[in-house]
Protein backbone atom coordinates (compact mmCIF):
# COMPACT_ATOMS: atom_id res chain seq x y z
CA UNK A 1 0.00 0.00 0.00
CA UNK A 2 1.71 3.16 -1.16
CA UNK A 3 0.68 6.70 -0.33
CA UNK A 4 0.93 9.67 -2.64
CA UNK A 5 2.93 12.61 -1.41
CA UNK A 6 0.85 15.80 -0.95
CA UNK A 7 2.58 17.23 -4.03
CA UNK A 8 0.60 14.93 -6.27
CA UNK A 9 1.03 17.28 -9.20
CA UNK A 10 4.54 15.93 -9.60
CA UNK A 11 2.86 12.88 -11.09
CA UNK A 12 1.71 14.94 -14.03
CA UNK A 13 5.32 15.66 -14.88
CA UNK A 14 6.39 12.03 -14.58
CA UNK A 15 3.63 10.19 -16.38
CA UNK A 16 5.43 6.88 -16.32
CA UNK A 17 5.21 6.82 -12.52
CA UNK A 18 1.51 7.58 -12.36
CA UNK A 19 -0.18 5.28 -14.82
CA UNK A 20 -3.06 3.11 -13.66
CA UNK A 21 -1.22 -0.09 -14.48
CA UNK A 22 2.25 -0.79 -13.14
CA UNK A 23 4.80 -3.00 -14.85
CA UNK A 24 4.10 -5.78 -12.36
CA UNK A 25 0.45 -5.92 -13.40
CA UNK A 26 -0.81 -3.92 -10.41
CA UNK A 27 -3.69 -1.53 -11.07
CA UNK A 28 -3.53 1.77 -9.21
CA UNK A 29 -6.59 3.56 -7.85
CA UNK A 30 -5.85 7.17 -6.86
CA UNK A 31 -8.11 8.37 -4.05
CA UNK A 32 -7.89 12.04 -3.04
CA UNK A 33 -9.34 12.46 0.46
CA UNK A 34 -9.51 15.18 3.11
CA UNK A 35 -6.87 14.82 5.83
CA UNK A 36 -9.55 14.26 8.47
CA UNK A 37 -10.43 11.00 6.70
CA UNK A 38 -6.96 9.52 7.27
CA UNK A 39 -7.94 6.81 9.76
CA UNK A 40 -11.27 5.80 8.21
CA UNK A 41 -9.97 5.70 4.63
CA UNK A 42 -6.82 3.91 5.74
CA UNK A 43 -9.01 1.07 6.98
CA UNK A 44 -11.21 1.14 3.86
CA UNK A 45 -8.11 1.09 1.66
CA UNK A 46 -7.06 -2.22 3.22
CA UNK A 47 -10.52 -3.71 2.84
CA UNK A 48 -10.83 -2.63 -0.79
CA UNK A 49 -7.43 -4.07 -1.68
CA UNK A 50 -8.31 -7.35 0.08
CA UNK A 51 -11.45 -7.59 -2.08
CA UNK A 52 -9.71 -6.60 -5.33
CA UNK A 53 -6.62 -8.63 -6.05
CA UNK A 54 -3.96 -6.68 -7.93
CA UNK A 55 -5.37 -3.26 -7.01
CA UNK A 56 -3.20 -0.74 -5.16
CA UNK A 57 -5.20 2.08 -3.57
CA UNK A 58 -3.07 5.21 -3.27
CA UNK A 59 -4.41 7.75 -0.81
CA UNK A 60 -3.53 11.40 -1.27
CA UNK A 61 -4.49 12.97 2.07
CA UNK A 62 -4.41 16.75 2.38
CA UNK A 63 -6.60 19.81 2.83
CA UNK A 64 -9.67 19.68 0.58
CA UNK A 65 -8.85 23.00 -1.09
CA UNK A 66 -5.39 21.75 -2.02
CA UNK A 67 -6.81 18.50 -3.38
CA UNK A 68 -9.44 20.32 -5.46
CA UNK A 69 -6.74 22.51 -7.00
CA UNK A 70 -4.59 19.48 -7.80
CA UNK A 71 -7.50 17.72 -9.52
CA UNK A 72 -8.44 20.79 -11.54
CA UNK A 73 -4.81 21.20 -12.62
CA UNK A 74 -4.67 17.68 -13.99
CA UNK A 75 -3.34 15.47 -11.22
CA UNK A 76 -4.32 11.81 -11.79
CA UNK A 77 -7.26 11.10 -9.51
CA UNK A 78 -10.07 8.55 -9.62
CA UNK A 79 -12.06 9.47 -6.49
CA UNK A 80 -12.42 12.70 -4.51
CA UNK A 81 -13.74 12.84 -0.94
CA UNK A 82 -13.96 16.40 0.34
CA UNK A 83 -14.52 17.75 3.86
CA UNK A 84 -17.04 20.26 2.54
CA UNK A 85 -19.26 20.91 -0.44
CA UNK A 86 -17.49 24.12 -1.49
CA UNK A 87 -14.33 22.35 -2.62
CA UNK A 88 -16.27 19.55 -4.29
CA UNK A 89 -18.18 22.24 -6.19
CA UNK A 90 -14.89 23.61 -7.54
CA UNK A 91 -14.17 20.25 -9.16
CA UNK A 92 -17.76 19.77 -10.29
CA UNK A 93 -17.90 23.25 -11.86
CA UNK A 94 -14.77 22.38 -13.85
CA UNK A 95 -16.50 19.29 -15.22
CA UNK A 96 -14.40 16.89 -13.20
CA UNK A 97 -17.14 14.93 -11.43
CA UNK A 98 -19.07 11.94 -12.73
CA UNK A 99 -22.73 12.31 -11.83
CA UNK A 100 -23.73 14.00 -8.59
CA UNK A 101 -21.53 13.91 -5.46
CA UNK A 102 -23.13 12.14 -2.51
CA UNK A 103 -22.80 13.09 1.14
CA UNK A 104 -21.39 10.24 3.21
CA UNK A 105 -20.53 11.76 6.60
CA UNK A 106 -20.70 14.81 8.84
CA UNK A 107 -18.18 16.26 11.26
CA UNK A 108 -17.92 19.19 13.64
CA UNK A 109 -15.29 21.16 15.47
CA UNK A 110 -13.93 20.64 18.96
CA UNK A 111 -11.01 22.17 20.84
CA UNK A 112 -7.93 19.97 21.16
CA UNK A 113 -5.87 20.60 24.30
CA UNK A 114 -3.02 18.84 26.10
CA UNK A 115 -4.00 15.87 28.27
CA UNK A 116 -5.60 17.09 31.47
CA UNK A 117 -6.37 20.50 29.93
CA UNK A 118 -3.62 22.30 31.93
CA UNK A 119 -4.59 25.74 30.60
CA UNK A 120 -8.19 25.39 31.79
CA UNK A 121 -9.88 25.97 28.44
CA UNK A 122 -13.64 25.86 28.98
CA UNK A 123 -15.14 27.01 25.69
CA UNK A 124 -14.71 28.80 22.39
CA UNK A 125 -14.47 32.29 23.96
CA UNK A 126 -11.42 31.18 25.94
CA UNK A 127 -9.47 30.80 22.69
CA UNK A 128 -9.24 34.61 22.54
CA UNK A 129 -7.26 34.69 25.80
CA UNK A 130 -3.86 36.37 25.46
CA UNK A 131 -2.14 33.70 27.56
CA UNK A 132 -3.02 30.92 25.09
CA UNK A 133 -1.15 29.87 21.97
CA UNK A 134 -3.94 28.85 19.58
CA UNK A 135 -3.67 27.29 16.13
CA UNK A 136 -6.40 26.90 13.52
CA UNK A 137 -6.79 25.83 9.91
CA UNK A 138 -6.34 28.33 7.09
CA UNK A 139 -9.57 29.93 5.88
CA UNK A 140 -9.60 28.09 2.53
CA UNK A 141 -9.52 24.70 4.30
CA UNK A 142 -12.90 23.34 5.47
CA UNK A 143 -11.94 23.33 9.17
CA UNK A 144 -10.78 26.94 8.77
CA UNK A 145 -14.01 27.95 7.07
CA UNK A 146 -15.95 26.31 9.92
CA UNK A 147 -13.83 28.22 12.44
CA UNK A 148 -14.68 31.51 10.74
CA UNK A 149 -18.35 30.61 10.77
CA UNK A 150 -18.23 30.02 14.53
CA UNK A 151 -16.40 33.33 14.99
CA UNK A 152 -19.18 35.13 13.14
CA UNK A 153 -21.88 33.33 15.11
CA UNK A 154 -20.31 34.08 18.50
CA UNK A 155 -18.75 37.49 17.88
CA UNK A 156 -15.45 36.10 19.19
CA UNK A 157 -12.42 36.97 17.04
CA UNK A 158 -9.36 34.76 17.35
CA UNK A 159 -5.72 35.77 16.89
CA UNK A 160 -4.11 32.41 16.08
CA UNK A 161 -0.38 31.85 16.25
CA UNK A 162 -0.58 29.99 12.93
CA UNK A 163 -3.05 28.90 10.27
CA UNK A 164 -2.34 25.38 9.03
CA UNK A 165 -3.08 23.83 5.64
CA UNK A 166 -4.93 20.83 7.06
CA UNK A 167 -6.52 19.74 10.30
CA UNK A 168 -3.89 17.10 11.09
CA UNK A 169 -1.23 19.82 11.19
CA UNK A 170 -3.29 21.67 13.81
CA UNK A 171 -3.66 18.51 15.86
CA UNK A 172 0.06 17.77 15.68
CA UNK A 173 0.99 21.21 17.02
CA UNK A 174 -1.18 20.58 20.08
CA UNK A 175 0.06 17.02 20.46
CA UNK A 176 3.71 18.14 20.31
CA UNK A 177 3.18 20.97 22.80
CA UNK A 178 3.72 23.71 20.23
CA UNK A 179 0.24 25.09 20.90
CA UNK A 180 -2.02 25.19 23.94
CA UNK A 181 -5.19 24.67 21.95
CA UNK A 182 -6.29 24.02 18.39
CA UNK A 183 -9.58 23.83 16.55
CA UNK A 184 -9.90 20.39 14.99
CA UNK A 185 -12.68 17.91 14.23
CA UNK A 186 -14.18 15.54 16.76
CA UNK A 187 -12.81 12.67 14.69
CA UNK A 188 -9.24 13.93 15.00
CA UNK A 189 -9.38 13.90 18.78
CA UNK A 190 -10.92 10.42 18.68
CA UNK A 191 -8.09 9.12 16.51
CA UNK A 192 -5.44 10.74 18.72
CA UNK A 193 -6.42 8.60 21.71
CA UNK A 194 -4.85 9.75 24.98
CA UNK A 195 -2.37 12.11 23.30
CA UNK A 196 -4.84 15.03 23.54
CA UNK A 197 -8.06 15.89 25.32
CA UNK A 198 -10.99 17.76 23.86
CA UNK A 199 -13.23 20.58 25.00
CA UNK A 200 -16.59 20.53 23.25
CA UNK A 201 -18.49 23.75 22.77
CA UNK A 202 -22.14 24.15 21.75
CA UNK A 203 -21.41 26.75 19.09
CA UNK A 204 -19.76 24.06 16.96
CA UNK A 205 -23.25 23.02 15.88
CA UNK A 206 -23.38 26.26 13.86
CA UNK A 207 -20.73 24.89 11.49
CA UNK A 208 -21.28 21.22 10.82
CA UNK A 209 -19.34 20.00 7.78
CA UNK A 210 -20.94 17.68 5.25
CA UNK A 211 -18.54 15.38 3.40
CA UNK A 212 -19.31 14.59 -0.27
CA UNK A 213 -17.64 11.89 -2.38
CA UNK A 214 -17.59 11.37 -6.14
CA UNK A 215 -15.95 9.31 -8.83
CA UNK A 216 -14.15 11.62 -11.24
CA UNK A 217 -14.89 11.98 -14.93
CA UNK A 218 -11.18 11.73 -15.76
CA UNK A 219 -10.70 8.54 -13.73
CA UNK A 220 -8.23 6.13 -15.28
CA UNK A 221 -10.12 3.30 -13.57
CA UNK A 222 -13.77 4.44 -13.68
CA UNK A 223 -15.34 1.16 -12.59
CA UNK A 224 -12.97 0.76 -9.65
CA UNK A 225 -13.60 4.40 -8.75
CA UNK A 226 -17.34 3.73 -8.56
CA UNK A 227 -16.77 0.62 -6.49
CA UNK A 228 -14.60 2.49 -3.96
CA UNK A 229 -17.20 5.27 -3.78
CA UNK A 230 -19.91 2.69 -3.15
CA UNK A 231 -17.80 1.04 -0.43
CA UNK A 232 -17.60 4.39 1.37
CA UNK A 233 -21.34 4.99 0.97
CA UNK A 234 -22.33 1.49 2.05
CA UNK A 235 -22.56 -0.40 5.32
CA UNK A 236 -18.81 -1.11 5.54
CA UNK A 237 -17.95 2.55 5.04
CA UNK A 238 -20.53 3.67 7.58
CA UNK A 239 -19.08 1.27 10.16
CA UNK A 240 -15.53 2.62 9.75
CA UNK A 241 -16.66 6.23 9.72
CA UNK A 242 -18.75 5.77 12.85
CA UNK A 243 -15.84 4.04 14.58
CA UNK A 244 -13.70 7.16 14.34
CA UNK A 245 -16.48 9.58 15.27
CA UNK A 246 -18.08 10.78 12.04
CA UNK A 247 -21.79 11.49 12.07
CA UNK A 248 -24.27 10.07 9.59
CA UNK A 249 -25.22 12.25 6.60
TrEMBL record:
Pfam families: SBP_bac_11. GO terms for molecular function: metal ion binding; molybdate ion binding. Keywords: Cell membrane, Membrane, Metal-binding, Molybdenum, Signal, Transport, Tungsten. It is found in: Cell membrane. Its main location: membrane. Molybdate binds at residues 36, 64, 167, 185. Residues 1-22 form the signal peptide. GO terms for biological process: molybdate ion transport. It is a lipid-anchor. PROSITE patterns: PROKAR_LIPOPROTEIN. GO terms for cellular component: plasma membrane. Belongs to the bacterial solute-binding protein ModA family. The complex is composed of two ATP-binding proteins (ModC), two transmembrane proteins (ModB) and a solute-binding protein (ModA). Involved in the transport of molybdenum into the cell. Part of the binding-protein-dependent transport system ModABCD. This is Molybdate-binding protein ModA. It comes from Prauserella flavalba.
